[in-house]
Q: What sequence folds into this?
């Protein structure tokens, strides 16, 4: 039984018809979510133009953020009841969250042990890579759009390229590989940046993944006309590199991989806009303030924080999470005329 803080039974909504109450975390299209994206904070120490305005945002109030203990409880439900096998901590900037190491340690003690990854902008990673590894972190993705210091400062509005490069090196030294580098190409400089960026990644043994810019910027300024699409990126790269499709099965991976110059090294293209991969999506998302989103582009959220703070038991939390995912839409609809950009920007959802 679930209890409210008044000690009264909490109304439990009936489960939607046909929704299983055990087993994998399913939606009505038969997709099973096994990959959980957890945003640890909406705050960040960079101001990437495609994500945040120069002045930052109105951050979520402290009392609305899940505490480390609340988060541990939800992670345990995700892994032990809902079949989540991989957890990625993101944000905002996850390294800004003080409890990151503690949360990773708790998650890595769960059975069956999930694969644990972090997506970070790399600031401060040089100092923390070894500690994160010791806490149980398996892998990192580091976001880096260019190795040109001037372009980096224009894109992120901070002169911090050297810190990101040091973070990448420390992650590699700590054994947090395979290391992936996430790049969103700037409409002005991206096609100039992408060739040296791929050379840098090949030289260091990092896998570059180029992500099409999505309509998730806080300023709602995204335009399809200025987005550098996958075909354009491939056309540019092919002038300098031999690219052959990677023969490994893609599964639910968002990136289409290309083998470079006949080697085992690959570059990935994430064509979220021009060639969506929603049909194979295996993700569920938890925001820093405890909301479940079934999709990056969801228009609705399910408030697990309110349930937690009203004393809901694990059965009720599990049922609410399942119900949220059962309603996952077929796709993001970016290319539909009726598409409406979500109110939350990428930094507050968790990319
Ligand atoms: N701060 C961390 C970072 O930058 O890696 C984690 C959060 S960030 C929101 C996660 C990823 O989303 C980054 O790789 C970033 O490049 C990407 N991203 C941010 N805004 C985006 C947008 N509008 N379209 C596509 N990707 C975006
Ligand atoms: Fe910060 Fe990551 Fe957004 Fe850049 S993409 S502003 S690093 S949250």
A:
């Amino acid at each position: 039984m679930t209890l409210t803080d008044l000690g009264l039974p909490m109304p439990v909504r009936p489960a939607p018809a046909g929704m299983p109450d055990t087993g994998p975390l399913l939606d009505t299209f038969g997709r099973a979510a096994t990959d959980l994206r957890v945003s640890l904070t909406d705050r960040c120490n960079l101001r990437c133009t495609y994500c945040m305005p120069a002045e930052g945002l109105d951050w979520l109030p402290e009392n609305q953020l899940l505490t480390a203990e609340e988060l541990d409880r939800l992670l345990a439900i995700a892994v032990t009841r809902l079949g989540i096998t991989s957890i990625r901590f993101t944000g905002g900037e996850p390294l800004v969250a003080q409890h990151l190491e503690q949360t990773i340690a708790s998650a890595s003690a769960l059975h069956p042990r999930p694969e644990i990854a972090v997506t970070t902008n790399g600031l401060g990673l040089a100092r923390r890579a070894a500690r994160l590894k010791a806490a149980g972190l398996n892998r990192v993705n580091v976001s880096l759009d260019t190795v040109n210091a001037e372009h980096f400062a224009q894109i992120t509005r901070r002169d911090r390229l050297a810190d990101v490069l040091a973070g990448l090196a420390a992650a590699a030294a700590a054994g947090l590989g395979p290391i992936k580098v996430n790049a969103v190409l700037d409409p002005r400089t991206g096609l100039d940046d992408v060739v040296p960026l791929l050379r840098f990644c090949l030289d260091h043994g990092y896998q570059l993944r180029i992500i099409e810019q999505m309509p998730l910027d806080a300023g709602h300024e995204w335009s399809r006309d200025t987005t550098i699409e996958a075909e354009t990126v491939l056309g540019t790269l092919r002038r300098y590199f031999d690219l052959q499709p990677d023969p490994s099965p893609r599964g639910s991976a968002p990136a289409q991989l290309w083998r470079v110059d006949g080697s085992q090294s690959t570059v990935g293209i994430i064509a979220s806009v021009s060639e969506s991969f929603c049909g194979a999506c295996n993700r569920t998302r938890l925001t820093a303030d405890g909301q479940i989103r079934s999709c990056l582009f969801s228009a609705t959220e399910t408030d697990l924080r309110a349930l937690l703070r009203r004393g809901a038991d694990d059965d009720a939390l599990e049922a609410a999470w399942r119900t949220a995912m059962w309603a996952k839409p077929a796709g993001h609809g970016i290319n539909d005329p009726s598409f409406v950009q979500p109110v939350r920007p990428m930094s507050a959802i968790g990319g």
Q: What stands out?
A: The first strand starts at residue 25 and ends at 26. Residues 1-9 have pLDDT under 50 and may be disordered. The radius of gyration is 20 Å. The CA atoms of residues 2 and 315 lie 8 Å apart.
